[in-house]
Input
Amino acid sequence: MSSPQLKQKFEQEFGVSPKVFGAPGRVNLIGEHTDYNDGFVLPCAVGFTTQVAIAPRPDRKLVLVSEGFPDRFEFDLGSLPQTRLGAWCDYALGVAVVLRQEGALASGASVVVRGRVPIGAGLSSSAAVEVASALAFMSLNGAAFPMPQVAKMCQRAENTFVGARVGIMDQFVCCMGKAGHALLLDCRSLEFKLVPIPAHVHLVICNTMVKHEHAGGEYNRRREECEEGVRRLSQWYPGIRMLRDVSAAQLEEHAADLPETIYKRCSHVIHENQRVLDGGRELSSGDLHRFGELMRASHRSLRDLYAVSCEELDLMVDLAEGLPGFYGGRMTGGGFGGCTVNLVNAEQAQTFGDEVGRRYLAKTGIKPDIYICSAANGAGAEPDSGP
Output
């Protein structure tokens, strides 16, 4: 559905013409589970877009409709829910709640959400809904927050309303992505630099079709395990605040003092941060083979130390090895299913994707979705989105 088609659907639903805002999904090239440890990440926005169409209402209702789900939700702006409903509307509704707290949403609104970021694939469909919704709601009252602040508010919505203790990465790259570039982000300071991705490389994203939901459970448990590591290590290093502050040498000095599981979680995060910094340099210099080796090391660490991979992800990674044009790949996203990301020479990308898909189907009986894409721009108003 294009923007004109979305507008038409909106007009049929509400009888007025909307503004339309779009936000992309993202894929993380390297730096997994480091963002909520104040570490480093190297993601890029990708060209799957969630669109949010919006128009003001004369009453104080917030009406949310989705192209992809049948349920329609209506709320009074003065008494919005303060915790998730367990429905598709949670991500947009959570943003509305945060903007109300900031005094930036004062009038009722009609909203239609069109999501084209694959759900449950680890490509951050939730952040895309949040950011597009934030820009849409802000447009009603002329609120003008800097994009990094928009990212923080959307993260707050997912943390406090939805209940997923995510870091800042997804929302930040959704806001700040740039076509043809990855974004090397310091998740503590929010300082970043754009890292060019060579034009002769495509990203081939392979979806295992195993869905995951990390609003609770294992995702939050990993965060708690990292916090436990910081508490224990602070006995010897009282200045540390997060695992970002711990060196590999400091961890090894007290490896025997930590429970094995806590040591493994800490080891992944500390070494993954270094892989991101090394990877930024390798990608900037065009050494794709070395960058590919760092991606492989990242996957092994996520599998063996952080324990967030799964049989299907490991298989998808293995099936890529040895194919023409392949530089490297790994699982991407929170884990427990979802996608692998692969750096592939553009000329071989289609053949690569076809062959990985064929092999995966033969091994599992599951037909995977394969997406061939390049780094895309971040969120904004859709062209000619005004009524």
Q: What stands out?
A: The chain has a mean pLDDT of 94.
